[in-house]
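Each lists sequence, tokenised fold; shown next:
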Amino acid sequence: MEIEGRNDIDEDSESNRGSMWDLDQKLDQPMDEEAGKLKTIYREKKFSAILLLRLAFQSLGVVYGDLGTSPLYVFYNTFPKGISDPEDVIGALSLIIYSLTLIPLLKYVFIVCKANDNGQGGTLALYSLLCRHAKVKTIPNQHRTDEDLTTYSRSTFHEQSFAAKTKRWLENHAFRKTGLLILVLVGTCMVIGDGILTPAISVLSAAGGIKVNKPGMSGDVVIVVAVVILVCLFSMQHYGTDKVGWLFAPIVLLWFLLIGSIGIYNICKYDASVLKAFSPVYVYRYLKRGGRDGFMSLGGIMLSITGTEALFADLAHFPVSAIQLAFTVVVFPCLLLAYSGQAAYLVKNKEHVVDAFYRSIPESIYWPVFLIATAAAVVASQATISATFSIIKQAHAHGCFPRVKVVHTSKNFLGQIYVPDINWILMILCICVTAGFKNQSQIGNAYGTAVVIVMLVTTLLMVLIMILVWRCHWILVVLFTGLSLVVECTYFSAVLFKVDQGGWVPLVIAGAFLIVMYVWHYGTLKRYEFEMHSKVSMAWIVGLGPSLGLVRVPGIGLVYTELASGVPHIFSHFITNLPAIHSVVVFVCVKYLPVYTVPEEERFLVKRIGPKNFRMFRCVARYGYKDLHKKDDDFEKKLFDSLFLFVRLESMMDGCSDSDEYSLYGQQTQHSRDGLLNENGNTVGSVVDTTLSSIDSIVPVKVTTTVGSSGQASSQTEVDEVEFLHSCQDAGVVHIMGNTVVRARRESRFYKKIAVDYIYAFLRKICREHSVIFNVPHESLLNVGQVFYV
């Protein structure tokens, strides 16, 4: 369903290219005084309102499936030993009501969701937002030209402000940057844990309905049914949600309406007095009367807000206003009615707490509700699995996860991806959790631990967002942080008591993923530092002369490097060991920026290295963490198109012909393109945004060039060089890649040797090669090996 909504936005809101979901701007568009425009604005408002309702409906299936299936298992996990006093049910219901109000409604829907990175949510999106407002990125590959991107939004503040002081405090010490990264990775790993635990507890709870209606059935049959559903669910991931996504929203909407209606039925039939739980007095009475057991039961109550973290992670699909509308109109009231109805039933039937949801269903609609519950559990699982795939892709873009195969599952929506390796790992772990624990209680304890840690990480990141990005007053920051931490730390302390009862599972899973992510990031950082410190000086290159001391053979050599400036060490290693080099050499750097996407027209940054007769260039391909490499020849074709365009523009810059380097970054206007294409000899005026650069700096320069009869010499030079490049391309393109082996020094500590020589080496061995990522033919690939020690 979300695909259709996104396509409609593309067709009807072309002017809103930078912010696809910016409905609020349409709704708040100022009224013109002319009568004709008033009618147009009215129509736009009407269209926006209808579109908002449609997107709110679609968001139910993608965003709220996980939160909506919580009534399946909350009361059982709250009272695993049974209910001793009916008043405890009222107290637990009161806690659920205020937990739903404080965390999902107030904190996430109305505050945290506004802290999105151009519509992208999740901990890594918050980290990207922080990286743009402070230099906290641990891999220092940023450049001033990156800030000129249209998607590189950031705010500035006064040097003496509290935000500026906080920024300097973060930037001054490397261990603070590392600590921030580890905090983000912890939250990310816990969300991955959700991708394992959500399908386990949702599907197992839904499948448990079979045993309720058939009491003689063995519990092992329920496990088998749940495992079969999980295997089918993960096996169908390669089709993507594009094929079945249109079903999600109707299923979840029907689910919410059913549980809300059943709740009203149970309140009227059993005990309407449960509505007194809306008074916070019963929270105090419950905790006072329950003592330690009452406090520990908070771990079960917290499951009522699970799925809230997925709400923020799945934010990219819909505008904030649509998510707010869906939650306040449908999700929130239906959940309150569902929990109130179960509480009313349990007050009169304390012994049915194990299967409270299914026991409270009227017998006449039992099996239809069972089927819809199972379908809703599958939808909830699908949302968290898809979010896990996106998180893995984002982690890779930040240099925190090995290269894995990424498959596009939708031609219409680029964000829908499938990661086969991660999918099968999730399936195996999910089946192990389901079959190993065999009951909801222990899985619920594990689930609660993962969710509360994600919420704590989000709160801590929100502190920095409010200071650096929103520049809120410190009183508001303290108020938000204090209220959030009081609630979440209370829940966190409660789940700590259940670490030995299943709560250790997400800690082990997250610990394993954290080790993988941090070790990979450490190895990536050390490789970058090695290339930076060992790059070749420009003086040495110029000293070799135009032939570079070698035979220049026809063809183009693409030398892949992680450096966005300077000549990499592998190039010197190459030319000192081989007798020949290609006529044209292009150093290619693929760099990920802390933005969600880089527009195609701004993708490539082209520069010349050394004098013109050296025929050496650099091309930096810039990507956002949502951008994906397509497995086709587009990358190479666009790279050469940018190179040829650069040469043609350079020949027009007579006044800059003595420069060592030129740079072109995709900000050409349509006028400049028209000027380039018009070669009939007439005078053509063009304004081109280009940059005059050196090795260490790039200074933007606005150049106005007039091409006419007086520019025939430069035009001839341009044609000659472009023809030469085309002939070299026809002669053949060779991809030269560095095969760098990282080793720990002999005097290194044992844990560093384990991390570098074993874990990182193993990850490098099993991850995908760069040549596979870029679809480089084996006959055109040349690997240059080198070893360095850290």
